[in-house]
């Protein structure tokens, strides 16, 4: 028999669907040293490991990963948000408040002008979007020989992420494709 671990509500949900004649042994945990991670928390854990290995900042690492595997921020007219600024790429990559990728550089009045595609922060992702971000991040970590979670652990984190999204929707906070740009 597989070991069942989780919070009481999760165990009760599992038992409600179990064979009524199956017997279980119940043993509460006395000392839990680590908490379960949802997918967004796991993304940040992997970012931290990757940035340490690469010797870059957390903001730069997150911005690269979100730009490579994340979701574009769309305006109300369904066009991607493009941000025009005089801020160079090195500056933009260090920002935590906006996630961008440079798509064009031009000159105006002999000065560089940068155009960036804007990406949504990971905290706004639905389960499918988050799965794509995690998959890409795991691939990047594996390429650097960084240990990642097992498929079972990832499935559990995905379950927790979906559960948190469901809870948010039921509280009326609604839009996961929306306008937040931070994570």
Descriptive notes:
This protein has helices at 8-16, 39-54, 58-69, 89-93, 127-143, 151-170, and strands at 82-85, 99-108, 111-119. The protein is of the alpha+beta class and 183 residues long. It has a domain at 39-148. A hairpin with a 2-residue loop joins β2 (99-108) and β3 (111-119). α2 (39-54) crosses α3.
- Runs in which pLDDT lies below 50 for 5 or more consecutive residues are 31-36, 173-183
Number of strands: 3
Strand order of the largest sheet: 1-3-2
Please report which band the strand proportion falls in: under 5%, 5-15%, 15-25%, 25-35%, 35-45% or over 45%: 5-15%
Short description:
By secondary structure, this protein is α+β, with helices and mostly antiparallel strands. Helices cover 43% and strands 13% of the residues.
List the keywords.
183 residues, alpha+beta, 3 strands, disordered C terminus
Give the arrangement of secondary structure elements:
Blueprint: H1 8-16, H2 39-54, H3 58-69, E1 82-85, H4 89-93, E2 99-108, E3 111-119, H5 127-143, H6 151-170
Antiparallel strand pairs: 1-3, 2-3
